[in-house]
Amino acid sequence: MLRARRPPLPLLDESTSSVQSRPIRKRDANQPSLPFDEMPARIEPCLALLKPTVPVGPDWLYEVKWDGYRLAIHIEPKSVRIITRGGHDWTHRFPAIADAAEKLGLTTAILDGEAVVLDDQGRSDFGALQRSLGGRGGKRISTESILYAFDLLYLDGHDLTRTELSVRRHLLEDVVPAEEAGTVRLSEELTLDADSLLEHACQIGLEGIIAKHRDRPYRSGRTGDWLKIKCVQSESFMIVGYEQSESARGGLGSLLLAGRRGYDWVYVGSVGTGFNGRQADDLKKTLDRLKTTKPVVPLKGKRLVFAQPTLIAEIEFRGWTRDGSLRHASYKGLREIQDNAAVFDMAAKP
Q: Would you indicate the residue range of the signal peptide (predicted)?
């Protein structure tokens, strides 16, 4: 059992839910000289494939699924760069993370992780993270955010993407301090039994867990090497219009949503809950500025207003209907336009 110097993470609350990591070791300064690999400007991230059940077996390791912004931290001799999943430089938006990364004492490295804001129970809160950044299009810097690092892609001149995850994790545990209160923290491997892990995660209010194949290299895209198993499903969808309502707040009854299939948009249904009157009013005003007479999805209706595909919404839902629509959808908030890479790919639908 780790001893926490802050309110414990949910998965540390019970004696049956311990999280363990290997002891921190100093890297061997006398290791043989190896050829240096040029540090890449960017590595396309490995993405988790959505699955309904937890894979079982010694080939898999499990981590908490953090609900935040995926970031790559590029540590160089004289600078630190923070790159979003879509390839944008957000160093200026996360200065505390950049400062903490610089203090790790590494010459060159690329950390893969998730920026989050935690609630008082140690759970990641996407809404709080959005507020810390000033909302969609906001210019605020996030001083509350921390980074949970879960992979190491480059270290001291060596490209690690071709090595198996178990080796990369072994090195990551050496370079990220075992501090539970730091701004850069290690995303711990969970040692609960796989059969009960998801149930416990759901009971304590986590979004879900990530399962990763120990023996695989780091491969970009949704290869199936990483899986996400969610308590409540949450994905990003493009808002392609709205349905007008005379009785609903702000005159906005529901948002029309679409996922991506190649270069096309596929309608996945609408969402009419999760936003308050002020949010509805702001959404309607923004969508009215994006109004178009050429909808990107084949819908018709007198009360439907179509918009250019620009706004990206994070949506919670309980599954899919047989005709490909979201079940029990609820609006969580808007993502930045730079997150267009995060829009749900219909090929990933289970």
A: none
